[in-house]
Amino acid sequence: MNRSKSYNFDIDEYDEDAFNQYFEWLKNTGPLVTAFASFDPENNSNAFGGMSISSVATMLLGQLDTYRIELEAWPYEARAEAWRVMGKRIESHSKIFERNRQMALKNERLSEDVRYMISDIQLVTKDNLFPEGI
User: Residue 27: how many CB atoms within 10 A of its CB?
Assistant: First the structure.
């Protein structure tokens, strides 16, 4: 007995919104990293509606990995065009993020796991977006 199945579905080659989503995250959520610079878990236990600072960090920072993974899957030509249009702004917002990250990492009141999450964030750079060169 032979059964032939036919599946009809579309697979997107890449997430066309990933670059815009990454940029919006970097521009809008990235500055919130400064909140970690002065956060004191002992005095701000209800600051996030009862959520732990670790949960908040995971929510805010975890999205960035997804966007980066999607961007790395883009075809070279699409990455090159997006970088041509947005590269300077990405680099400028990345500098702001890095400054804010360094301030947050100096906050010794944050737990080790939160500081690790903050230090482990990998931003999109020209070098990691174009390992084959541009």
Answer: 15
Q: What is the DSSP string of 37-72?
A: HH--TTT-TTTTTT--HHHHHHHHHHHHHHHHHHHH
pLDDT band at 45 (very low <50, low <70, confident <90, very high): low
Q: Where are the domains positioned within the chain? A: 18-38+50-129
> Mapping DSSP to helix (H, G, I), strand (E, B) and coil, where does residue 12 land?
coil
Which H or E element spans position 103? helix 76-105
Q: For the segment 3-39, what is each residue's pLDDT rounded down to a tens digit?
A: 666 666 555 677 888 999 999 999 988 788 888 888 8
Tens-digit pLDDT profile for residues 54-87: 887 788 778 888 888 899 889 999 999 999 999 9
Residues contacting 95, CB < 8 A, separation 6+? none
pTM of the full structure: 0.80
CA 11 to chain centre: 24
Phi-psi region of 58 (alpha: psi -120 to 50; beta: other; left: phi over 0): alpha
Q: What is the dihedral of CA 96, 99, 101, 102, to 10 degrees?
A: 180
